[in-house]
Write a structure and sequence with these properties.
Layout (H helix, E strand, L loop, with lengths): L1 E3 L11 H33 L1 H14 L11 H8 L3 H6 L9 H18 L3 H5 L8 H6 L7 H21 L2 H22 L11 H14 L4 E7 L7 E7 H13 L4 E2 L8 E2 H24 L9
Antiparallel strand pairs: 1-2, 2-3, 4-5
């Protein structure tokens, strides 16, 4: 295992803005965890209900007639895909479909309950989706995580990368790259792929913006990585590697291994395309930063 350790785990007094970002993420997670879990558990029951998913799959095939998705052979898979189709969830309950009308009636009642519960689902009002894609949501989604491990992994790297950049530049730089980079990533994502009924949440796009910024401003600089082969002093330690090498390696490992991964829940899962757009946004912000610094005649871009 290799971790970009950089300046290590810096305290609040040294990197207050980075810690503020982390604390905001933890706050929103802790305040909404129980409600998110209750909603997710209920959603999971629908995914595991074979009768409901079969009925929804048959109905969705009729709704999507003429579209490529309608060619999916497995009816249960169609039932899952239907949950991400905003037009289907909006229009289908009032449309007429052929088939077992008793089963369709039961499906309508279950879908109505699903929509009701979805209205209380925190990722729906913090995240970016077809129902919620304004500027505010493109900021709020960066501070909300549905799962602890998802949040922990993101915030660990935000602390290490953000802390390094805050010490080297400023807290304002880190905050600007985090917010703008994450917002640009979401904007490009929904205009490239299209917003769906599944909400986009998490700090991954913002983290990748920080990595993109670091990639440009410290391209040739050797930065510290921590390697752990075995939990023993003989098999763990530090190595200094040019930033460009390990950032590209990390992005190859994390974001080019797949396109979009969606778990069996309403959430959008890991959107690797958002990571890519975040990285590009961070690079662009770095070039803007360097150009502004050059025009102002700053001899050194680093803090003294």
């Amino acid at each position: 295992m290799i971790i970009p350790f950089l300046d290590g785990f810096l305290g609040f007094s040294k990197v207050p803005i980075t810690w503020l970002i982390i604390l905001l993420n933890v706050f929103f997670f802790s305040q909404n965890y129980q409600l998110s879990k209750q909603c997710t558990d209920q959603f999971q029951q629908w995914y595991e209900d074979e009768d409901f998913m079969y009925s929804q799959g048959q109905i969705y095939r009729q709704f999507a007639k003429g579209r490529e998705v309608a060619n999916v052979k497995r009816v249960d898979v169609l039932g899952i895909l239907a949950f991400s189709d905003f037009d289907f969830l909006l229009k289908a309950p009032d449309m007429n479909f052929s088939g077992d009308q008793v089963a369709i009636k039961d499906w309508r009642e279950d879908l109505e309950l699903f929509q009701s519960i979805k209205g209380f689902y925190p990722p729906m009002y913090f995240g970016v989706s077809a129902e919620n894609k304004d500027i505010l949501s493109m900021v709020s989604y960066q501070f909300f995580h549905e799962e602890f491990l998802h949040m922990f992994g993101n915030l660990l790297l935000v602390l290490l990368v953000g802390g390094f950049l805050e010490r080297k530049f400023s807290g304002l730089t880190v905050f600007t790259v985090y917010i703008l980079g994450g917002a640009i990533a979401a904007f490009l994502f929904i205009h490239w792929q299209g917003a769906t009924a599944a909400p986009l949440v998490g700090a991954s796009g913002s983290l990748c913006a920080l990595l993109g910024f670091l990639f440009v401003v410290s391209f040739f600089e050797k930065t510290r990585l921590m390697y752990v082969i075995l939990p023993s002093p003989k098999y763990m330690g530090y190595v200094f590697v040019p930033t460009a090498y390990w950032v590209l390696w990390l992005c190859m490992m994390e974001d080019f291994s797949g396109l979009i991964s969606k778990p069996a829940s309403l959430s959008s899962g890991v959107a690797h395309l958002v990571h890519l757009f975040g990285f590009i946004a961070g690079m662009a912000l770095a070039y803007i930063y360097l150009e502004l610094a050059k025009r102002k005649g700053i001899a050194s871009l680093q803090k003294t």
